[in-house]
Amino acid sequence: MTERQKLYILFFLTIIFGCATSKSQVTIQDVNQAHQLTPNQIWLSHEHILVDFIGAKKIQQANWDHDAIMAAVLPYLEVLKDHHVTYFVDATPNYLGRDVVLLEKIATKTGLRILTNTGLYGAQKDKFLPDYVKESSAEDLAKKWTKEFTHGIDRTSIKPGFIKISIDNSKTLSTSHQKLVEAAALTHLKTGLTIASHTGKAKGLWPQLKILKEKGVSPEAFIWVHSQEENNNDSYLKAAKMGCWISLDGLGWELENHVEKILFAKSNGILDRILISHDAGWYDPQKEEQSIQPYTAIFEKLYPTLKSRGFTDEEFNVLMSVNPSKAFGIEIRNHPFD
């Protein structure tokens, strides 16, 4: 073997080893720790334990009691053991009831790996945005969100596992909502955290993906939240082709519409871009009596229905394990600019 041949072999081994090492370093961040991605665990990728709709100007954690919340929600979480759920993504953002200490207590009690988030929620005409957002730049917000990832949230060691933002659905985003999307893009490029955006119909999706492209972030780093509200199936095909994650996350409240959309995804070869969850729960501290929606409809209603219509266990595993583990894996995904 010549020296040149040895160099070629060394070069290719370096590439192969580097790719394998990079892949093995993809992690998931829950409220307890970061750990290596494993694609064979069951996920609930969009749920809520606590939500307080009082608004950013009035919200205070002193308004709720951890013991009371845990007493109310733990029965609904404990039953998830029967369905072998490992990951529970809590999508409640800051200023809407995000309480990472509560989530850590619940994770310890139940054994669930709970993900929390950084970011801010712009929907409902900025009701849940703190005043400082008006004077902050996208870069300022990104620094705050990145710091939560590097140093922990609210003076704890608990770190976010993804970025949660939201918009008022429109073809043209408001200035503040453009700022949120830009900040999320910048935070992704610093941290590798996936962006989950409360969006709804597709008309609000395209301007967000345009901003991400301008900032150099791939659609593969973006979850289109509440996509079940879209009525034009062509939008799903377009979003999937771009690489966007399509989250059908209203299964705590509705079934048949989701079934049809999942079967459409299967028949059109885009099942590998679909996430499903309940958007269920939750404890509301503004209510004297709680009415918590269970987190089990996927297992008790959706799964049997899909099976009766030709869905295989392997396809269900793609939805519940393979896709969410990829979607929430922490890695910087640059835009291909193709």
Automatic annotation (TrEMBL):
Residues the record lists as N6-carboxylysine modifications: 164
Pfam families cross-referenced by the UniProt entry: PTE
InterPro entries in alphabetical order: Metal_Hydrolase (IPR032466), Phosphotriesterase (IPR001559)
Keyword annotations: Hydrolase, Metal-binding
Keyword set includes Hydrolase: yes
Domain of life: Bacteria
Hydrolase in keyword set: yes
PANTHER family: PHOSPHOTRIESTERASE-RELATED (PTHR10819), PHOSPHOTRIESTERASE-RELATED PROTEIN (PTHR10819:SF3)
Record family assignment: Belongs to the metallo-dependent hydrolases superfamily. Phosphotriesterase family.
Name of the featured protein: Phosphotriesterase
Naturally occurring in which organism (per UniProt): Flagellimonas algicola
